[in-house]
Amino acid sequence: MRKWRVMAEKEELENQEEQVKQDEVLDKDEQKESTEPTWEDRYNEMNDKYVRLYSDFDNFRKRTIKEKADIINQAGSDLMKDLLTVLDDFERAIKANEKIEDVEAVKEGFRLVHHKFEGILLSKGLKPMEAQGEAFDAELHDAITNIPAPEESLKGKIVDVVEKGYFLKDKVLRYAKVVVGQ
């Protein structure tokens, strides 16, 4: 009997060892499964990345729009600040011209204010467009009317400038309104 008991205990120990080995193999398989992301985990991760990237881009877009608006406002305020000096000159000229009888002094005052105003605009990149006697160019000029050319050499050219055109940093700001000879 003792032999049977020893054999049974030995067999039981072997079974237990085998069960432990099987449990270890199962644990390793479970660990592998737990470390490998499932499709749902991958989907959630990619979706999270997408949402974050979209939010970052949206914030970037809003920030650049705000920065552009700030730059435009700053540029406008700089121009207004410079033009205030011309407004001050006009106010002084109005006060000075109330009691003055010398017309030449009034004319000279207006010429000075005009020169100052023109200087400020030129310093900001404004440039007058020369059109008188030039060939008509639809990219630069706006033809109001055509008239018979007073001379043969003025056919297809600008005879009169009704309203001056201007460039702002080499881009047409206002087209010149002209009369073209035919």
Automatic annotation (TrEMBL):
Q: What PROSITE patterns is this protein classified in?
A: GRPE (PS01071)
* InterPro entries (UniProt xref): GrpE (IPR000740), GrpE_CC (IPR013805), GrpE_head (IPR009012)
Q: Where, per UniProt, does this protein localize? A: Cytoplasm
Write down the species. Wandonia haliotis
- Where primarily located? cytoplasm
Annotated keywords: Chaperone, Cytoplasm, Stress response
Superkingdom of the organism of origin: Bacteria
Listed Basic and acidic residues bias regions? 1-10, 18-41
Q: Does the keyword Flavoprotein apply?
A: no
Instruction: Spell out the protein name for this chain.
Output: Protein GrpE
Record field: transmembrane = none
* Protein family (similarity comment): Belongs to the GrpE family.
User: Do you know which HAMAP family this protein is assigned to?
Assistant: GrpE
Q: Which CDD domains match?
A: GrpE
Q: What does this protein do?
A: Participates actively in the response to hyperosmotic and heat shock by preventing the aggregation of stress-denatured proteins, in association with DnaK and GrpE. It is the nucleotide exchange factor for DnaK and may function as a thermosensor. Unfolded proteins bind initially to DnaJ; upon interaction with the DnaJ-bound protein, DnaK hydrolyzes its bound ATP, resulting in the formation of a stable complex. GrpE releases ADP from DnaK; ATP binding to DnaK triggers the release of the substrate protein, thus completing the reaction cycle.
Region annotated Disordered, chain positions: 1-41
How is the subunit organization of this protein annotated in UniProt?
Answer: Homodimer.
